[in-house]
Specification:
Strand content: 15-25%
Structural class: alpha+beta
Number of helices: 6
Strand order of the largest sheet: 1-2-3-4
Length: 196
């Protein structure tokens, strides 16, 4: 507690104090979680890249309107059945490599369920995963952080969600070796006609 109070004692603005507290909390979470962490698997990296690509896309197209709410709509790190939910629109994100046959793995039937007043969309990113570091996972994260730098609260929430995913700064060199090139994006409306 003393660490938290000392970290904000010199800050006047309540907004800046809240941002600092969140950042400090994330730092402490990282310390405690790191002892049980391991690097993301290849499948986890590809999945995270897909979710981050979608997040970056909505951040770019929402003209920076309420950045915090947009980051808050990313539910994948929290273990939610679907990856994004804003208002009554749900997006389930799948990212597959072109080396695999076109099949997106649905881990549970609940991923494709929505309430009557909700709209569920499946977004499938098809990517090439190649040796090289030009468009790697770290670059994707840095691009999003740059957008979110306009909102310290949104940036702090984003960094916390990365921790929930198992992405730790100390491991970032592990994610430098492979880059991702988007080949195709497919959108599906999941309704009563959608194959189950």
């Amino acid at each position: 507690c003393e660490d938290f109070s000392q970290s904000i004692s010199h800050i006047k603005s309540e907004f800046d104090q809240a941002s600092q507290l969140i950042s400090r909390f994330i730092s402490w979470c990282e310390i405690f979680k790191k002892s049980q962490s391991s690097k993301l698997t290849t499948a986890q990296q590809i999945g995270l890249y897909g979710e981050l690509s979608f997040l970056e896309n909505i951040l770019d197209h929402e003209n920076n309107n309420d950045l915090y709410a947009l980051v808050e709509s990313w539910l994948g790190p929290e273990g939610s059945e679907q990856d994004f939910k804003k208002d009554n629109i749900i997006h389930e994100i799948k990212c597959i490599t072109t080396r695999r046959s076109f099949a997106a793995v649905i881990s549970s039937e609940r991923q494709l369920e929505a309430e009557d007043d909700e709209t569920l969309k499946l977004v499938v990113y098809i990517v090439d995963r190649e040796k090289g570091s030009e468009k790697n996972l770290n670059h994707c994260i840095e691009r999003i952080r740059e957008i979110l730098s306009l909102s310290p609260m949104a940036l702090a929430l984003f960094n916390f969600k990365l921790l929930e995913c198992g992405y730790y700064e100390e491991d970032c060199s592990h994610y430098e070796d492979f880059s991702y090139e988007l080949r195709e994006t497919k959108f599906y409306l999941v309704d009563s006609e959608f194959p189950r």
